[in-house]
Every structure is written in structure tokens, then in C-alpha cells.
Amino acid sequence: MKSVQLNNNVLRDGHQSLAATRMRTEQMLPVCEQLDNWGFGALETWGGATIDSGLRFLDEFPFDRLDALKKACPKTPHMMLLRGQNIVQYAHFPDDVVTAFIKTSADHGMNIFRIFDALNDTRNMKCAIDACRAAGAQAHGTICYTSSPVHTVAKFIEMGVELEKMGAHAIVLKDMAGLIPPMEAFAIIDGLKKKVKIPVWIHTHDTAGLGTNTYMSAIDAGVDAIDLSVSPFANGTGQPDTTRMLAILQGHERCPQISDEQRKSLREVRTHLEKVYAEMGEFTSHKNEVIDVDTLEYQVPGGMLSNFRTQLKEQKMEDKFEDVFREIPVVRKALGWIPLVTPTSQIVGMQAFLNVKFGRWKQMSPQAADIALGYYGQCPAEVDPEVQKIAAKQAGKEPISCRPVEAPGAQHKHMDDLRKELKAKNFPSDDEHCVIHAMFPPQLEKHLKGEGPKPKPKPVAMPAEAPKAAAATATPAASSNGPQKRYGLTINGKQIEVGVEEIV
Fold first, then answer.
1. Mean of all residue pLDDT scores within the chain
2. Gap between the Cα atoms of 450 and 7, Å rounded
3. What does the pLDDT read at residue 309?
4. Taking the CB of the first residue and of the last residue of the chain, which one, N or C, has fewer CB atoms within 10 A?
5. Which residue, 503, 429, 442, is CA-closest to 100?
6. 95 lies in a domain?
7. Where is the domain boundary, 193, 227, 253?
8. How many domains does the chain have?
9. What pLDDT is attached to residue 501?
10. Which of 390, 406, 422 is the last residue of a domain?
11. Are residues 324 and 195 in the same domain?
């Protein structure tokens, strides 16, 4: 059999999953040539949260990053994650904005668009698929995996067949929370390979420790490609590490032939990324690095688990953690067993919190109400009629069954509107700026005015003979959820992490 294709996600999902999407372009560039020459089938370099985070926290214009990475990695196809009609935001955008974004991105060198919808509503994927084909790019129709009474192997396969008919060039099974058991992965991949003529890829995380086993089952079922990363931006809430996966695959008939030079190159990439990871201590957490079996129970992406612990602590509701997460299946069922992926995971989690704090359905978030009323799309199962009535009353609007972007009374800014707004402010009004303005107007304006966030200075190495001085000027790193505070120190050019506990 043909060797399985290995993709690498370290420049996007790797740092999104393990370091809050805070890796700067300048931190990526030193390893780009090695990644480009290694032999990966594709490099995920853009999309997901990188566009939002780049503007909001790093003061980077998104297309500048894409241009830089494309120049640094010209040989390997680039891929991005696209939220269908949401593009890389949470709201639905009109077709002309979606089309313009995809065409512009393709013009800047994006080759593969992984297109998904949080509800698996293919109506919200069609425009993006059509736009990719028109732009000469690859449209990969993406199935969001989840587990519920209404999600079956047969349903996932049926969706894959539909996506092929819609014009997708490949099917991707996206397991965003690392939930899919190996045998179910085998069944879905095997079924898809028997039903569709286009390639089938799989994407998972190692949040619950299933990642490598799931990949092995998928490979045995004939999957064409898998997603990997590079440590330390790998494993845990990220994708399995490339070197680790190759070791597990050793001796398998579909294991790619890897040279000593390739192995050396991966070590060199890892060495650089370890330095970057140390620089990003403020945004990393040990909880994201280890297996979290709670994911299997709550079916929530690992990053959200740790964020929720922090948020509950801030609300002085640490003792309600189990209550909130027990409420998640209740909310999911009421909202039609929706998959938990951005943005639905955040919406369901927030509604579970509100149910615990104020009483069940006493206060609905606007987003949860919109899901109940059809403004995000068609849910996998029927929404609880009583919850839908509550949502309609609290939101002051009626349910819809049409494509959300075509909802009656919906007010959208089209490309002409966006261009006029930018011109009125004397900002660049080309398509690149128009599509970013559509999604992130305040962040773009700050960037163009030079008011964006300034990067923090890099830690300064302290001399060996003055460790006390180094400790005195230590910069805070990621805090634990306990009483111990953690700090990152740079001593003799080496990053170390120490814990400090107050003794009363």
C-alpha cells in the first residue's frame, strides 16, 4: 500500500493548542526552510485563530504573515482552517465577502482550504467550496467529529458523500477534541474510502491520549493523510509529535521512508522550537501538555477545560466546576446535540455556566438563543421546543429554517460597503484590508493607526555570578491554578521555570 502522507501543523494548530496562538512570525521563520524541505505533504500555516490573535495580540497584519511564510516555504502546499460562512470569525458573512477572502488568500499563496461548519450544516460550506474551486485552490470538505445519540458512523459517511457531490477535492475527518476511539475512526475512514473517490484525511488531538492509536487505526483503514506537529508544540492538546508517530509507525507497511537527514532536521526544528516555547511561558500551561481524561467525559476541547477552570476561579465558583461540566450534556441535548468546536464549544460552555449560576434557562446567552432559533444553521437533532420558546422570548425574534446568512432582516456589510468605510477613514481599501475589516474592524484600525499591542521585550540573560539579581527581575510566566506562582528565568542564556509559594 501507498505510504501515508504526513502533514505538519506546528505553525498553526501546534501553537494554537499549546500556547494560545501567540507564536510570532519572526519566531517561525528560522525553521521554515527545514519544514519546507522535509517532505511533508502540506504545512498548516494560517487560519483558525491565527488571524484574530495576530491582529489582537501581536500587531501583525494577517496577509503579511501569509506572504512571509509562503516565501519561506515555497515548495510545500500551504493549508488553512476556514469556518465556512464564518470565515475565521463567529458571525455569518455574505457570500461576496467569503468569496473575496478565499480568492485573496489564494492569490497570496494559500493552496488548501479546510472548510468546516460548527453544526456540520453543509449549507454553510457550499459558498466556500465553490469559491475555492473558482480560485484554483483545493477545497477540503471537513466533518466535525462528535459523539451523541444522533451522531453515527453512517451519518458521518453520508456527510462525506454529500461533500464530494458539492465539489470538495478531499474529505477531512476533524476530531477537534481528541475524542474519537480508534475503532470508530477505522469504521468511518473505511466507510468513506469505500464510498468516495477523493482522498480522505484525518485530524485529531492527543488531549485524551488517543491520538496515535486513532491515527494507527485510520492508517489501517486506508486514510490518505494525517496531521502531526513538532514538540514542544505537540502532544497533549496538540497533534502527536512527528518523531513520536514515526517511531510508532516503524515496521508498518504504510510507514514513510525517512532518511537520517530528515531525522536530524526534525531534531534541529525541535531545538529551535524549545527556545520559542520557553520564550512563551506566559501563554503555556502544564495542563495542556498532559493527558486529560476529563475530555472523554465532557467532550470539550482540552484548551477550553483549562480556561474554564480559570474563569470559574475568577468568579469564585471553583466548587461548581463539576456542576458546570455536568450541565454541558444537558445544554447540548437541548440545542440539538451540536458538535463542540469553535464557536459552539464556547457557547455551550457559557450556557452551562449560566444555567448553574442563575438556574436552568433563566438567562440565555444571545449566542445560545441564536443556535436554538436556527441562526447558526440546522442542528443535528431537533431543538427542545420549550428551550426554543424561551430563546424566542428572550431574544425577541422567531426561529428560522433558511440558510443563516439569508435570514429575514439580516444586515450585512458587503465588499462595496467595507471599501467605502475604509476609504472614509483614509485607510487602504484593497480586498486584503476589506475582508479583514469585515471580521476585525477595531483591531485592524488600531493596527493601521500604529496603536496595536507592542511586543514584550525578550528576557535578558543574567550573568552566572548573579543568580539573585536574575530572580529579582524574573518575568511572570504561566501561573498554576494552585497557590504556587511560577516564573520564567533566563540564566546564562538558558530558560528555566521555578515555582514560588507564599508561606504564611
1. 89
2. 36
3. 67
4. C
5. 429
6. yes
7. 253
8. 3
9. 40
10. 406
11. no
Q: What per-residue confidence (pLDDT) applies to 59?
A: 96
The Cα–Cα gap between 120 and 142 comes to: 8
| Same domain membership, residue 107 and residue 233 | yes
* CATH number where 37 lies: 3.20.20.70
Is 215 domain-assigned?
Answer: yes
Amino acid at the residue 373? L
**Within its chain, how far is the Cα of 324 from the centroid?**
23
Indicate the pLDDT class of residue 230, thresholds 50, 70 and 90. Answer: very high
Residues 350 and 238 reside in one and the same domain: no
**488: helix, coil or strand?**
strand
Please count the other Cβ atoms lying within 10 Å of the Cβ belonging to residue 271.
Answer: 10
Q: What is the pTM of this model?
A: 0.87
Closest to 225 measured CA to CA, from 164, 159, 172: 172
The grid cell for 5 is: 502522507
* Domain limits for position 384: 294-406
* Residue 330 reports pLDDT greater than 80: yes
3 state DSSP class of 170: strand
User: Is 180 inside a domain boundary?
Assistant: yes
pLDDT digits (tens, 9 = 90+) for 3-37: 999 999 999 999 999 998 999 999 999 999 999 99
Q: Are residues 172 and 224 in the same domain?
A: yes
- How many Cβ atoms sit within 10 Å of the Cβ of residue 412? 16
Q: Residue 232: what residue type?
A: P
**Does the N-terminal peptide bond of residue 366 adopt cis geometry, omega within 30 degrees of 0?**
no
- pLDDT value for 317: 83
Does a structural domain hold residue 121?
yes
Residue 467 has pLDDT above 70, yes or no: no
Sequence-ordered list of residues with C-beta below 8 angstroms from that of 229, at least 6 positions apart, any chain: 8, 9, 10, 13, 14, 235, 238, 239, 240, 241, 242
456-462-468 Cα angle (round to 5): 110
Nearest one of 123, 120, 115, 109 to 148, comparing CA atoms: 120
SS3 50: helix
